[in-house]
Specification:
Keywords: Signal. The chain has about 290 residues and is of the alpha/beta class. About 30% of the residues lie in helices and about 25% in strands.
Length: about 290
């Protein structure tokens, strides 16, 4: 009964805040975990699903506006977008030093995401082999965790303004399964340092991360690549700023794609030069059928 009342309360609050998205919850190991989605979207059986994850201190309903461009493609490209929520606004990702309650209480994120996959497979008949994950900042770290610990359930990930933790700050046990990964990082990011170091976020300690190049090469080596990636320059979507985007890609038939979008002069924020989640979906689409 309490679960039903709790869910009804969340849905009521969600509808009052946003006319399209609803907020609901799942009971996972004694903790209510929330997620948002748009029930008005009509997808066909066999749809792909993309988890879009907020950063540290965020929440799914407020973050859903960031997925608007991606969601506008839902029906034409048969993709369902779901916004999971961290526990008390934070994720139990792979940073050992994190003082967030989700980490100190070791919340079972794998159980949460497995339950979400099963829920939407039942509800919408999604293709469980085409489940993808992308996230911003702390959500990007959660995307890394899914790639490291759930590669059999997640087809590919896209991490935005996030570097992998250093070895000393890593508390995930990697399954070491090759997986397509895209990283989008800004060279002027003072929160997630492009060249690695201490992550600075108010109210929580998160420890040190590797450099962007080290994070990129971790996945490249895991996926069987060596040598130099192919470099290109993305179209300048906003000529009013000083941002350019360099694209570095490892791609070979029979191997997962690994791509880095180097946002020159980019900070710890969403850029206006391109839509980060739409670009993630373009990357994910390239992995379908491989």
């Amino acid at each position: 009964m309490f679960k039903q009342l709790f869910s009804a309360f969340l849905i009521l609050v969600a509808f009052s805040a946003n006319a399209q998205h609803v907020l609901d919850s799942l009971l996972i190991d004694g903790h209510y975990r929330v997620y948002a989605y748009n029930p008005s979207v009509k997808v066909k059986p066999g749809a792909s699903m993309v988890f879009v994850m907020h950063g540290s201190g965020g929440e799914p309903l407020g973050f859903a506006r960031r997925g608007a461009k991606l969601e506008s493609l839902s029906e034409s490209e048969n993709v369902l977008v779901v916004y999971p929520g961290g526990y008390k606004k934070y994720w139990n990702e792979c940073r050992k030093a994190s003082t967030a309650v989700a980490n100190t209480q070791n919340l079972n994120e794998e159980a949460f995401f497995n339950a979400l996959i099963d829920l939407f497979a039942s509800k919408y008949k999604i293709n469980k082999k085409q489940v993808f994950a992308t996230g911003f900042s702390g959500g990007g770290h959660m995307a890394y965790k899914l790639a490291l610990t759930m590669p059999g359930k997640i087809r590919a990930v896209s991490a935005i303004v996030a570097n992998l933790p250093t070895d000393e700050n890593m508390d995930c046990t990697a399954m070491n399964v090759p997986l397509p990964v895209m990283i989008t990082n800004g060279t002027a990011d003072q929160t997630n340092p492009y060249n690695g170091g201490e992550v600075t976020t108010p109210g929580v300690t998160l420890g040190k991360v590797r450099s962007t190049d080290q994070s990129f090469q971790y996945w490249a080596k895991l996926d069987g690549y060596s040598g130099e990636p192919v470099k290109s320059i993305m179209p300048d979507g906003d000529t009013s700023n000083n941002i350019t985007v360099e694209k570095y890609t490892y791609q070979k038939k029979g191997k997962p794609e690994v791509t880095l979008l180097k946002v020159v002069n980019g900070k710890h924020e969403f850029v206006t030069d391109f839509d980060m989640f739409e670009e993630s979906w373009k990357f994910f689409k390239r992995q379908i059928g491989k």
